[in-house]
Amino acid sequence: MNWACRFLRLRGVGIGRRLRGFTGRPSPWRIRIPDVRRTRFLVNASCLATVASREFLTVILEQWKNRVWRIRKRDAHNATVEPQKVEYTNPWLASSASKRWGEVFFLLYSPFWILILLGVVVPLKLYESFQEAEYLILGLLTVAPCFLVPLIVVCKEDAERPFYKRYWFKANVWIAIFGFVGNYFWTHYFYTVLGAIYTFPSYKINHVPITTFLLTQPYFLLYHAVSNMTLRRLEHAIKNISNRQTRWLIQAGWVLLLSYITALTEALTISHFPYYEMVDRPTFYKVGSLFYAIYFIVSFPMFKRLDEDPSAPWTLSQVAVDALGASMLVTIILDSWRITVGPIADIPWAASQNECVQFGPPWLRPSSNIKGVKASYNWSPSGVTQESYGHSRLLERASKHTEL
Description:
two-stranded antiparallel sheet
């Protein structure tokens, strides 16, 4: 543009003479002085507009390039760096929104099934007219909402997840596995070590009422939801203690205390149900509750780990393996009690302490051809079996009711 400006600044007469000398006659393109000034102004204005527009476009492009670069850098950072753990402000509740909702749901549902069992069935003695089908229906009515309600009432955090990735489903799976092993295997320890039996009519699996399998689900969900919250609150309270061993001892002491309180509370709450017999109730409440607390000494700290870290949610395979691992650990401790301590009372249908040690796990019927082992668990010096003892207690209760 500079050469054009210098060219137009030449005098009009000079331009005309050159043009006229070239053609030999007056040129029609002769530029007058007023026209030169006007053209100079227009050229300068166009130069200024060009420069301004070029600078403006340069600034816009630079800003756009910087914005695109920042976006790409942020996306690359998010793709390579693990998400940070978001801590919730309430020390009682979980950092994971899905787990927080699940624990609150288990707590809110608990008053409903407690009201059905301990507020309606037991006080009104509806169980007196129940048979196998009625007990089965009662168990299904209490366990079904644990699975069905969260499918209908979905929280915002779980709306984008499939149901098997939500905390409430994984918690139900963990408790279902742990509860099944407990009922199928560990109930026989109650029969042979603690002297407790069920005498109500019910369909059974491995000599254990199916109703107890079903009722274990809401019971254990409540226990473990409360345990999670208290353990989380305790961790928040002792986090400033520098000694790691001291923190561990405090947590272990609380797990032992909470487990015993849970076991004793359950034993006392079902004491008004007459079809759950104990040979020696005072000993069962004091010592048997400690035996029952072994369940929770293992399960409370292990269950709390489920989806506790929001950045590392568990898969269903991890849930199943963890529940089975907890079940195996409880089995080892219970059988160690059987071998070392033995029965807590003189149980008419069970073997003595020495014979209890020889028999092996109580859910296995020993073969008669094994040297030193009796033909079955029903053997006893008095000839009393578990079934006959329960039947005699039912007749005794019926006779007392008739006298009244």
